[in-house]
Structure prediction request, 662 residues.
Amino acid sequence: MSSAFRLEDYDVSPITGFLPEQEPARRLADSYYTPWLVLNEDLQALQLTGTLRARVEEEKGGHLPVLSIDRLIDERERRWAYTILGFLAHTYVWCDRQHVKTSLPAGIAVPWVQLAHALELQPVVSCASVVLWNWRKLDPQGPLDLTNVTSLQTFTGSTDETWFYLITAAVEAHAIPILRAIPAMLTAIDTQDTRAVLAFLHEMRGVLADLPALLNRMYEHCDPHMFYTKIHAFLTGWSNQAATGLPHGLLYKGVDDVGVDPNDHATLIARHRTHAGGSAAQSSIVQVLDIVLGIQHYPTGQPRDQRSIASQNDPDLRRGNYLVAMRAYMPGPHRRFLEDLGRQCHLRAFVQDQGAPEILATLRRTDTDEACLREDMLTTYNDCVGHVRRFRDAHIQMVTRYVVSPARKSGTATVTNSTALPTPYSHGERPRQNMTAAPVASHDPAWTPKATPPVDSIPSTPTEKSAQVSPHLPPTAGDEFFLSVRTRTIPTSQTSIPSSSASTVAPSESEDWPVSPPLDSPVSRFSLSGLRRAAATWISAKASPTFETDSFTLPARNASTTTTINAIAASTFMGAMTPQSENRPSSRRASEGGETAVSDPSSPVNSLLVVADQPQQQQAVKSPAVAVMPRTGRQELLGSGGTSAIKFLKQVRDETTEGLLH
Ligand code: HEM
Prediction:
């Protein structure tokens, strides 16, 4: 029986849903925590003055002590501490994009990891920290809606960022009547109470009908340019961030380096964490809608037949579901809510059974009222699915406007859907989603959307089509490339050496490219040296690349630059990886700048992924596996100028449409 399903068991309130019933804490009672609060208070000022890092880094004369979390008095305080440490951490890492920090000081890392553990979250900024636990009412006696709330903290201090968080919170809050009605709906299904299920669906339809308009209120106060250039940069996590300077992720000092010899780079690199950053994809409510309606989502980027096979049989094929992966970034109780609801909710099956054509045909002859009721249930169910689809359509348009279009304007859009970059939308396990319905409480007027202009009438919204950029624009002088190298092992049978130095085969999106092995391992050092040496030769004497640990920038010089780089990567790769080839000795020595490295034929690493920043062009090259990729601001969000996000979102939208019952 599902009747035992209780919202309060999952820290879900019938009044405020996934938002806490009590306003989030704004201070921490014990003055012991003053060092955190002071930094939090001055977060934007410290950014502007460029002094934030100096304030927390001992080596720069600052000091942020490692504080114990034991003096936080309750869950509210723990949440607030987690939130402000998140703002502090992401500001610390990203405030200077030219010199991104690759590790977090212990004063931030240690308590943040402990708090994340206690709250069953990841130590990274999440929707919970910036939305659920980051608001206050302006008038304490007033309503909890967009007329009376603001955010407690932002990275930028802008109204745009506040609005971004508040609209996300408003979407959460708007669907509270659905949450409230779920337990009774589950009971109604158990007891085969068709009328109660229908009442639930009517209520749900009423709520969902307003959702796209509410989402579109984003346009009122959140400027796309501001979002693209400033806000998302801080929300970025450390997964898939080779191009932004974190090829291995982030090292949490005082946590992950404890007991490791500081010179043991291999171990230290292996200890780096890779967490996705904050995204409204971590909002639980939209997943609730999918679960309630029984909308199935599949691993991203696989052919349709593969995906449906994946849904039934092979657990390995089920990997790659980004939406499920995002649950790890939701508070533990909310995650469990989704999981348990997925197990207990059979709404779709109920509607389907009750509305089966043969049953309806019989009922139309024997019991017209019952037939009408069931037809109404079927129609209302489909209306609900249709509204979720409309919400996703509006959201895709929004992502086009806030990500794809600014990326294109700023010249960072690179295109083709055949991106070789493994998208972030390919993690985790596919959820088991079934369904269920119920008597419904009256619709909460709080958070109700105001009338907004239709999104089509908003000027300068690009169509998705127009946002596509030609994949073959030549680079121009002054373009910069940023290369980083990742390696992996692929079966020897697939590593045919190309005859030309630059073939163009995109590795499939689902391919997994783990972070590089340590830079001081023979193969990668050889490869990097080879890249450097070859770059100097190939790009000509005028180029003066500046080399960093595992990346370097090259001024683009002519239209063949990308091909040249592919060739460099390919030849270096071949030089390093094919010691048996006819021109090469079995163990090849390369010398550069006094440094000698030896390729290791026994190394399991046999492939390179080269990530390149190049504004207008993306090419993927396998040689056997060398890919030239674009650099973007935020890989999770902006992979290929947002086009991989759009591709993912369209798949999710189309899967929603597949939920319609016929
Ligand atoms: C400026 C506004 C927004 C932008 C640019 C944006 C961007 C994105 C992007 C790029 C993704 C792909 C996944 C990822 O990168 O994490 C995504 C997913 C998602 N976003 Fe947004 N988003 C915006 C507003 C919102 C709002 C207000 C909500 C409301 C809850 C929302 C809910 C979702 C959901 C649920 C997903 C997962 C995909 C799905 O279920 O359809 N987004 N968003």
Remarks:
- The first strand starts at residue 103 and ends at 104.
- Residues 368-409 form the longest helix (42 residues).
